[in-house]
Amino acid sequence: MTSPLFELADISASLGTEHILDQLTLTVNRGESLVVTGPSGCGKSSSLKLLLGGLPWQSGRYLYKGEEVTPAMLPDIRSHCGYIGQESSFGRAIARQVLMRPFQFSVYKDRIFPEEAMYALLTRLGMAHELLDKPMQNLSGGQRQRINIIRALLLEPEILIADEPTSALDDEAAQSAVELLLNENSDFKPRTIISVSHDARWINHCSRQVTIYHGRVVAQEERHVHYG
Ligand SMILES: Nc1ncnc2c1ncn2[C@@H]1O[C@H](COP(=O)(O)OP(=O)(O)OP(=O)(O)O)[C@@H](O)[C@H]1O
């Protein structure tokens, strides 16, 4: 039995004169790995931003665990979500600092930094532990993306929101990321995953695909996922 985690009903959102979401209706159930696909500029990243409170909407309803979302609820929603963004600029910070930083945020101040999990995740994603001492700006795009994945997982989020999590990864690293994030047998898999992707290597392993066109859901496909 699945229960809705997020429910978006007829959400329309504009920024200035730009119509970004047009009566978007989408339910995300607990335990699923949903991937949102569609052409560039159709509103995929914006729909993820909306879930985290980063995009105001003008009409429609947004429910979280059955409750109408208000601004006061957003910090609690965010505290349950890990986020992997497209390109993050961390400047001169070294990778280890970037991984540790969320543990200094007040919402996570009671958590102890899981050093062993950090090393395990680096190994699972095929990264040398020495990379931890390099500035983020000196890492390759694929290495930075894997640091972003690890950063999100170290907080053990119930929900993972991932924008193009495998876009900069070669085949081997993409497969490791899929195994880590989507395989039910992975110790690190978040319970519910909401992603945006253009990458068949990722899309084919998600349990449901939703296609958006011009800010509106136009197709949905449920699938049984096989690994290996
Ligand atoms: N801050 C903003 N101000 C105005 N328009 C914006 C803003 N952010 C996004 N948009 C517009 O909203 C539309 C949807 O953008 P969004 O980033 O959600 O697309 P996307 O489907 O994720 O695209 P891509 O696959 O290229 O990443 C685009 O037309 C974009 O130009």
From TrEMBL:
One Pfam family name is ABC_tran
One GO cellular-component annotation of the UniProt record comes to:
plasma membrane
Q: Which PROSITE patterns match?
A: ABC_TRANSPORTER_1 (PS00211), ABC_TRANSPORTER_2 (PS50893)
Q: Which InterPro entries match?
A: AAA+_ATPase (IPR003593), ABC_transporter-like_ATP-bd (IPR003439), ABC_transporter-like_CS (IPR017871), ABC_transpr_LolD-like (IPR015854), P-loop_NTPase (IPR027417)
Domain called ABC transporter: residue spans? 6-227
Top-rank taxon of the source lineage equals Bacteria
Gene Ontology MF, one: transmembrane transporter activity
| PANTHER family named among the record's database cross-references | ABC TRANSPORTER ABCH.1, IMPORT ATP-BINDING PROTEIN
| Name used for this protein in its record | Putative ABC transporter ATP-binding protein YbbL
Question: What organism does the UniProt record list as the source?
Answer: Parendozoicomonas haliclonae
